[in-house]
Amino acid sequence: MFPPGILEYVLARTRLLDEVFVDALDRGFPQIVLLGAGMDTRALRFQDRNRGTAVFELDIEATQRCKLDVFRAKKVRLPKELVFLPINFNNESLGRVLSEAGYRENQQTLFLWEGVTMYLEPEAVDSMLAFIRTGAAEGSIVAFDYVRAAVLRGEGHFYGGRKASETVARTGEAWEFGIEDGAIQGFLSERGFKLVSHYTPSDLEAAYLSAEDGARIRRINETHCIVIAAL
């Protein structure tokens, strides 16, 4: 059983990051990097919009092997622009793995980092953002979601927060990283990024789960927010 509002959150997150992905294709970004791509299928779903953008998918080998097995079983023809890069983020150099596959630091790049930061130690989040800051061209974009820090402290005033934390903890992968409410702009600025857009759960509801008259159709779990930032 999903925690309250989590399915709605995932649907809204997918829709928003789809739009970010397509915007990068339409603007002619030479590169898109999916960090912890999981079972993401954007490179396939939007291949008709791709005019030569290289899409690098990075994840652990076991996840990518499972994904590729499904594609082979379904006889899915993969786009020529799609590059799968197995990596262990804990002990392999992201820069080396990317550069050996054709990634170029002097090109405008979109980094999609979906459903990952909350499972990392703060130092690992900083390390990834530092790589993007130093290893991507000006104008590059990073989009990621994060958990509100109050949720990590067990504060129960967010809709679905306590249930979501308990569910995650039972999987053996507790949430480790969060950002305080109201602190996102300072967090990004300290790490060399400019805030482009920030979406709270209520912002996502208004954008994707509301009727034409503004009435809310479904409620989103209030544990997560999504940020889009630029170099």
Describe this structure in words.
With 231 residues, this protein is of the alpha/beta class. The chain has a domain at 6-36 and 105-230: Rossmann fold. The protein contains 9 helices and 8 strands. Strands 1, 2, 3, 4, 5, 6, 7 and 8 form an 8-stranded mixed sheet that branches. Strand 4 (109-113), helix 5 (122-135) and strand 5 form a beta-alpha-beta unit. The mean pLDDT is 95.
Short description:
With 231 residues, this protein is α/β, with parallel strands linked by helices. It has 9 helices and 8 strands.
State the main characteristics:
alpha/beta; single chain; Rossmann fold; 38% helix; 231 residues; 19% strand; 8 strands
> Proportion of β residues?
15-25%
- Please report the distance between the alpha carbons of the first and last residues: 39 Å
What is the level-2 CATH architecture name of the domain at 6-36 and 105-230?
A: 3-Layer(aba) Sandwich
Count of helix runs:
9
| Average pLDDT metric | 95
Q: What is the CA-based Rg, rounded? A: 18 Å
> Which ranges are low-confidence, i.e. pLDDT below 50, for 5 or more consecutive residues?
none
Report the structural category: alpha/beta
What sort of overall outline do the alpha carbons produce when their principal axes are compared?
globular
Main beta sheet:
8 strands, mixed
CATH superfamily of the domain at 6-36 and 105-230: Vaccinia Virus protein VP39
* CATH fold node name of the domain at 6-36 and 105-230: Rossmann fold
